[in-house]
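Page 42, continued from yesterday. The earlier attempt failed because a stray header line got pasted into the input along with the sequence. Redoing it now with the clean sequence only.
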Amino acid sequence: MTATPDLGTPQLASPDLLRSVFRRHAAGVAVITAPGGEGPVGFTATSLTSVSAEPPVISFGIGVGASSWPAISESGHVGVHILGEHQQELAATFARSGADRFGASTRWRTGPEGVPVLDDVLAWLVCRVVARVPAGDHRIVLAEVVLGDPSGAGRPLLYHQGRFNGLRD
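This time it went through. Structure tokens are written below.
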């Protein structure tokens, strides 16, 4: 007979269980941007994933109720920005509902394919959207890398336990 490890008190699947588990998962912080009919849009994402090296494809999730979703749902290209630990306020701005994300405090320029490119990030990509896959109340966006710049200086920003953090040695 095999011993069963102490499982504590398991909970049935629920949105609260998923949130509680993923609060314990440290994730890198990115900002996704896109051109929009009424100006640029963007949001903070911790769901960024490298999917394929050949061809180079990334993915990220976005809620269909998000203010950025209408533009992301129609845009042919998106910007992907890896934030540094010095950019906690930028991450918070792009995460905050109703914030003026491209206001005076956000340094950015219009990049290739009309994609907003943020300044002073660790790395950025411009990607061509190849699919939007339904996943519950979200869509998983698959995008092929067109070009980018990995040369920013600094250490990555992380999201853990509901807060933005830097790496510790």
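Notes: The longest strand covers residues 123-135.
Reminder to self: strip header lines before submitting.
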